[in-house]
Amino acid sequence: MESKTEYQYEADVVIVGAGNAAMCAALAAQEQGARVIVLEKSPEKERGGNTTYTHGSIRFAYNGTPDIQAIIPDLAEEDLQVTDFGSYSEEQYYEDLCRMTNYKTDPELASILTGESFETMKWLTKHHIQFIPIYGRQAFKINGIFKFWGGMILESVGGGHGLVEALHNEASSQGVRILYGTMAIELLHGDEGIQGVRVKEKGRSKTIRAKAVVMASGGFHANVEMRTKYLGPKWDVVHTRGSRYNTGEGIQMALDIGALSAGNWSMAHAVTGDRYLPDFQEGFQRLSYPFGILVNSDGKRFLDEGADFRNYTYAKYGRLILEQKDNFAWQVFDGKVSHLLREEYKGKQVTKVKANSLEELADKMEGVDKEKFLEEMVRYNEAIDDVVPFNPNEKDGRGTKGIDVPKTNWANCIDTAPFEAYAVTCGITFTFGGLKINERAEVQNTMYQKINGLYAAGEAAGGLFYDNYPGGAGLMAGAVFGKIAGEQAAHYVKAELTAKV
Ligand SMILES: Cc1cc2nc3c(=O)[nH]c(=O)nc-3n(C[C@H](O)[C@H](O)[C@H](O)COP(=O)(O)OP(=O)(O)OC[C@H]3O[C@@H](n4cnc5c(N)ncnc54)[C@H](O)[C@@H]3O)c2cc1C
């Protein structure tokens, strides 16, 4: 039975959040003829959640250059001639998800993500979202050819800001209504399912009548209490990346009406980044570690910097720094590889020391045991198998031999001045735990039945990522399941209205 609530707004579908998953849901629902209202708790100038903070790098399955041309029809002939995009099949994508998550990923959701990724990319371009190849960060020019690695080859024009702007421009041109500074605080529901949402708009409680709600409100990485509760000790004090508005209440609201939780609640995407940068600031990450080494306060290496392409290791290496004493480490490079360092190493707010010898460098590396560090450098340099040629574009197998913490690829002696070291710490990006959804993005309850009218997508849905994560899968998951959620929500409302006539 419907409650006697007074409603200030009315819509068919309400979307909670205005990031990538939410805006894909909004576009898809509107496309199916639904009247859509998007709720965004941040002010308009901070809209876009974590999506704004991304590079817009997105991972999808494709079959060679013709598929890339289907997404970027105006790729210049001269670029095509010097680019090897390779290919990335649905099976490879699926296998990467399995491998990264130690085979814990939800097989149904993983098949949908990988199987729908290319079609969803085409759908995005139909909605005027533009992409470009990620030259420089995902491919180096070797012998005149850019050869891409790791399956993630495109990014949105203008990065995360560009993606959010393009999604919002498209949504407003399609008539989607967005309420900024409006926070969803409660789901209204009865025996038949969702009835609407209670919100706080500029401090006032209001209600929106709607038969369907898509929860696309992100995860809880910016909620210190939930971080500590679910991820454990030390996670309260980690550097916090991305949006300060992803505080988990969207997930909590659904749990409060009986939704089932899913996924890896005790793990999160966490990377290595500048030790002293304030929270929520862009430019935190330091991701060129495969070409150097990391040492802790004991001067010791503690992880395999070259275990895989950085797309496959960066999301879990933040956590390994958090496990070190005082949650810090130094990344060390020498003059042979400094030209390979990513843009983020060149900015002004970079905690960096430079020296002409390793001894001088060690003196400058705050908090590091100098003697032990110099001993570690001798051990490391002696362990390198330099018969194998160095090639940053592929897993070159140039590794170490006979040391406790091996480096599997891209191992070079650190022996050429100038030497550089960067102080890094752990920074949390987003959380893996969320709501249980099925193949139609319908939120399940604890009796394993759908909650009529409730959908979830993006970080708010759990089950895809465990322990680790393949770079670029976050935006793709948001787009694939956001689109499905929006379509399904619109169909559900249409069916409900038809049934009533
Ligand atoms: C620095 C950084 C770099 C990244 N780089 C990449 C990358 O290159 N490629 C990639 O695939 N992924 C990347 N990610 C991960 C990616 O950002 C996320 O996986 C993805 O953007 C999540 O999208 P979403 O729509 O689920 O959440 P978000 O984009 O975070 O949107 C959630 C929105 O919900 C709003 N909200 C929260 N609670 C409420 C409420 N109660 N009421 C109303 N609104 C609410 C928030 O304000 C926010 O706007 C990166 C993340 C960060 C932080």
TrEMBL record:
SUPFAM superfamilies: FAD/NAD(P)-binding domain, Succinate dehydrogenase/fumarate reductase flavoprotein, catalytic domain. Keywords: FAD, Flavoprotein, Oxidoreductase. NCBIfam families: PRK08274.1 (NF006130). Pfam families: FAD_binding_2. Residues 12-473 form the FAD-dependent oxidoreductase 2 FAD-binding domain. This is FAD-dependent tricarballylate dehydrogenase TcuA. Its cofactor is FAD.
